[in-house]
Model the fold of this input.
Amino acid sequence: MVANVGTTVAWFPTDIPHNHEVNLVDKNSKTVFESGIIKFNTASKPLQLNDTGTFSFYEPTKNPRYPDFVLNGTITVVNQDSSSNTNSTSANGTSPDTIVTYMIPANELDKRVSEFKNRGFNVESTFSFKSLRGGGSEAGGDTQEYLVVLTSSGKGISEVTSALKEITASMPYT
Done:
């Protein structure tokens, strides 16, 4: 993920009901953020990205049933004037202030995409992958899942979180 200086990020676990925890470290492996426990279907405490650079986030604790199913990735923070950044526009041509990635069982994709659009999110892309948990009831009964990238503009973090909570509450694995 690439974000501009000043962007606020929060993690919002929406998979099966178990808790997560996220740490963010800089290029020297110095911890710059610890989320503490993030309960299912709630947002972490927010973090404002004030320094440029590439940061790695990872989950320091793991679910023993699914040790490879963890939150991890990178955030590259840049200092770029958004008016000159042609890559900062979403599918509908607006400059997004929220970016969300969301995992959805394949058999739920059309329904959930419709829900996101009805709540003002733009669907930027989808990526199909084999369920990390091998299918079954915890993956909504489907062996394929989608990672959906969503954006929105003009919504505060509480409005985004509220919409996500409503959608997540009706997912088949909750």
Observations:
- Residues 85-90 have pLDDT under 50 and may be disordered.
- The CA atoms of residues 106 and 157 lie 27 Å apart.
- The chain has two helices and ten strands.
